[in-house]
Amino acid sequence: MAQDSADYAIEDDDLCLDNEASEIQRLQLTAPVEPQPQEDLDERVAKIEFHCSVCNMHEMVHYYGRAPPFALGIKFREDSYVLRDPFQAPPPRWQSKPEFYVALGVKCSSCNSVVCKDTSCSFYYTKTFCLECGKVELKNWPVEAQSRFRKQLAAKKP
Amino acid sequence: MSYRSGKTSRKRHDSTRQPLNLVDFSFLDHKSALSRHLFTKSTRHPVSLVENASDFWQFVNKYESMLRNMGQSVLPSLLNDSEHKQLQPYHKSKHLPLQLDEEQVKDCEGDELQAQFQQLVLIYLDFKQKEKFNRIKKLREAQKALPIARFKQDLRASLEESRVLIVAGDTGCGKSTQVPQYLYEFGYRSIACTQPRRLACVSLSKRVAHELLDDYGSKVGFQIRFERNRTQHTHILFITEGLLLRQLAMAENLEQYDVLILDEIHERNLFGDFLLGVTKCLLRAKPQLKLILMSATINVELFHGYFKEEGARLLQVPGRLFPIKLKYMPPPALELKAGQATAGSKREKSSRLDPAPFIQVLSLIDQQYPTTERGDVLIFVSGVNEIDVVCDAVREYAKEQTHWLLLPLHSGLALAEQDKVFDYAPDGMRKCIVSTNIAETSLTVDGVRFVIDSGKVKEMSYDASCKGQRLKEFWVSKSSAEQRKGRAGRTGPGVCFRLYTQQQFDAFEAYPLPEIYRVPLDTMLLQMVSMGLPDVRAFPFIEAPDAERIEQTILSLKQHCALSVEEKITPLGSSLAHLPVELSIGKMLLMGCVFPELEQLLTLAAMLSVQNPLTTRAFTDQRCERERQQYESDQGDLFTLMRAFHEWLQLKLSRESTRKWCQKLGIEEQRFYELCKLRQQFQRILESCRMATPKNEQLDSKERARRHGELRQLKALKRRQRYEQPRQRKLLKRQFHEAEQQDEEELGEDMRDVDFRLRHDHRQLTLLARSAHLSSHRDVVLLKLLLVSGFYPQLAIADEFNYCKGASQQFFHTQLKPFLSLHPNSHFAKDFELLKLAESDLQEKPFYYTPKQPLSERHQLLCYQSLLETAKPYLMNCIRLPAAQTLLLFGYAIDTNVGLSRIVCDGWLGLDFPQPGSGLQLLSKAIELRRRWSSRLYDKLNELNNSSKDSSSVAAAPLPVRSDSLWSDLLDFMSLDVAYSIKRLLPADQKTLYTRSPPTYRLASLTSNPFAADFPLSVNEEKGGLNVSEHVVYGCLAELPWTLAMETALQAQPWQCPRCDYELEQFDVLDQLLHRPQCKAQQRARVSNDREATVAPTSSSRSGSDHYCESCGRHLKLSKVDILRHRVSCTKKK
């Protein structure tokens, strides 16, 4: 009853979307669940630093590894820096959402420096190479991969 | 179990499958069979792997045709995990850094088609990943490209060295969006950034949240008057200047922020200037606080100098503007005027704006720039009327040149209309936006290539001499002209046409006049005092207003009892400072707190505080006028609006659409929503200082259940809207006026309505509707009383010759300014007869009353909310009131003669009471009521003050509202029928007004106060006579021939005390007063007053005996004295 009446005391704050996120969860969940706000919050906060060694792209990401808990149906072939998708509304707790992930970059497979996914910074063929390492490694690749790499180099932004 | 078999089948597939060839095959043909692979394996809640299935299928279609075109129609067989890691041989899928998670996706059971389809899903997901990555990357690149970005490290270094930093940069340099983010990156976690406008707070907070990739989080928030979305996780807060000021006024908020950013300080508005001074003081009190000031590159040295002693650093950031060609095109004055006359001038005014030069420029643009080159036109004129004039002309011009799309833009337009200027023009067409200076800084319209600047602006100025505002046209300042020009170069090179000469430009002022010189200072000064500033004169203004004006303001604050004589804040004053409204409205609310039906007052006060809900269209469109008719109240526009608001609430109650209804009446619905929010805010403030008791109307269980369902629904709607993209720019339609109706339909769910319903359950709505319903005359009169209590001394009296003049010749005078008009849109301007005395209202004058003013019981005064001078000086938002009663209840200085036949209020309105006893009756009643009212208020204020000092132990208990007869007594008083005449005193009258002599022997014989027993009598040294109450001086007015004649005439009449059997041989007022304190009946009445207070009318006792007058042959029910009086007048008539 007490919980109910809280629902009716519609104050300004209620509308100010303070608790919108938790409100939404409460409404969408069929069964009431013990709230664990702190834990919930933690997984939403980006705490891992990502810094592209080539272009200086700098972001905080949520996950580093191959299988982000928030990614639905996919895994990455390499350890990746992954962001929860900022362009979609977050899914309710314990639910997943399609394509709710954006991989920003990985460590170069040969020099181990962090690079972003930009075509000016890295190239993927079976694994990721920063462009500098790619130039060295390409001799071992099939010609199709080499030509694709060269094309990418040529299109590289100044 | 199932996936193990999946794995085994996958191992087999290479040898058994036939490759697919897209030449004779398409995945799209197997859509229904394959679609299940777009979902996860989980049987209970399968979730889609892709955000948007139709987008996916489109991708499939494009991808297939691409492969076909490239001659790669044979799909290569798929690789297994270990093959993926080998460099040789080449396989396209080795470029995919993703793989499907077998544990989650459905099994293909060795089917090549299904496996290839899953591969396609993977290619799609990888493609989408690249898209999203690029979106982020692009965002970052755009940020890096902003001029401010190069200064990021400078900013960091400056902040380490100094506590005050000034960032000066022109529009488009990115300071407003980037600086808060930089600070966040530097590690500041509690950043407040002020904005002069509410809208900017909202849009900036959205933008910055987006750039921080936190659209759906709460790192960035905003707080504006009616809304906030700040949470405990908010690190960057965009807040309006006024709100931050109120926050800083409370000591506990001082620790809240570690850095303050004041944006747009070059605008020099009142709050901005005030904030500068406050933060200057704050820097001293809080050594950890950092301050960043941001401005356009306007008068930067002023700010730099102001914070010199704090060691302010200055960072100048170049703007990003494309080159703009400047053309001075002054209209060749005479020949054009002649041309316009033939073109047909509809209106009479010669001072009317000539639209011809604007059209000339448009036609010049048509000649010189082909319509294939995009680019819109922005015209700056000074005001709404000017916009109409130019729009009429452009419309005419656009009949032939049909590629012009006309869009007016000013703050009076409905918000949806304003938004249209952001839409795109179709190819080959140009928008022509005709705007006030709202588009100079407040609104930024991209895509403008041509600016036409009239060089004029209408600006509000404040005239302290008449306490009125004036809206006048001026030349703009140089800096405004440059701002206007700059609007042409935001998206590409542009042209600016100035309709004045270079010489004129050179003579412009450098900067616009700061607002502090143009508005009343009372609210600001009161807030300063309440913030604890010991002497407002010592406030470190960046540019101080006139010392004279500060003194005047302090005086008026004292008159309102907001400040004590020692200029300390009074309980009333500190309560007033808490209310975010004009002083007068605040006072009204507080005065009304001792009023039992506070609900109605709250609604009324909120109505007075929002912008007029009636749009310009409401007065120009015949249909709106007709629709509004039924709500018109002859009590004035305020009451008409209350009726309309009540009807609106009724519609809400019956769940009907209000949007259309508002449209029909020409009402900007947003104002009504604001009104409700404001009202709620008032209520909360009054409750929080325990001036009002919270209403606890609980829903019963059935209602609660219904409400619960409703809430779920509403919240779902709200959630959907919240996650929707903001309004997208649309393509404008050619004839957008016809499309208007349709647009309304398309808008779908009315989010403001959803918001409103979330906030108000059925009970609350009913309560609100009741509060807007002024059913009885009693309600109206009481509210009027409360209105005047706030607005006094804003009164106006009709000109004495109004009775014989027409509508346009009706004039009114205030104490400070003569010859004012009613605003032409107001009800009283149309129905001005309401303010006149009817023939039947006039009363016969006694023979001794010789002045020519009419004698009546029906004299009225106007009480106005504000005084605004545009074309003429206008009284705004008037209500009408019985004159004498109002003056005696609210006047600051009330002076009388000994016989109480003459009363002068505040030295400018003279009341004559030639009927014996009527002056005494009215005045003593007024004094009594007024003292009861104010003691009630002060009891309450003091009680609150004491209890808040005591402890919190009693704090929870709300103060009871004593129910008694004060209000019904006030109502009785307002409707007392007393005949008098009223006259505006001229300076000549004022010279001989007072006796200025010490009290005569007879006056001195008054030893106890006959008007207010507990108010000690004292001699008034200045005017003469005796101070008999806080506001009344008895016996100081000099006698006039007619008052002497009246005295003589009355000497022939006896007088009997209406309460006891005391009799006087002569009708002598002083003797009557001498009797008062002795009168036992009076004393008894006074005692009972405090309990139930049924005060018998003073002289005309209603319980009289039946009497037959022989001379006029009528049966009369009169008291003894009245019989005598009647006899005198009856024989006189003969």
TrEMBL record, chain A:
Signal peptide: none annotated. It comes from the Eukaryota. Residues 50-149 form the Cysteine-rich DPF motif domain. InterPro entries: CDPF1, CDPF1_dom. Pfam families: C6_DPF. Belongs to the CDPF1 family. This is Cysteine-rich DPF motif domain-containing protein 1. It comes from Drosophila navojoa (Fruit fly).
Automatic annotation (TrEMBL), chain B:
It comes from the Eukaryota. Coiled coil: none annotated. Residues 156-316 form the Helicase ATP-binding domain. SUPFAM superfamilies: P-loop containing nucleoside triphosphate hydrolases. InterPro entries: DEAD-box_helicase_OB_fold, DEAD/DEAH_box_helicase_dom, DHX34_Znf-C2H2, Helicase-assoc_dom, Helicase_ATP-bd, Helicase_C-like, P-loop_NTPase. GO terms for molecular function: ATP binding; helicase activity; hydrolase activity; RNA binding. Residues 1085-1107 are annotated as: Disordered. Residues 364-532 form the Helicase C-terminal domain. Keywords: ATP-binding, Helicase, Hydrolase, Nucleotide-binding. PANTHER family: ATP-DEPENDENT RNA HELICASE (PTHR18934), ATP-DEPENDENT RNA HELICASE DHX34-RELATED (PTHR18934:SF221). This is ATP-dependent RNA helicase DHX34. It comes from Drosophila navojoa.
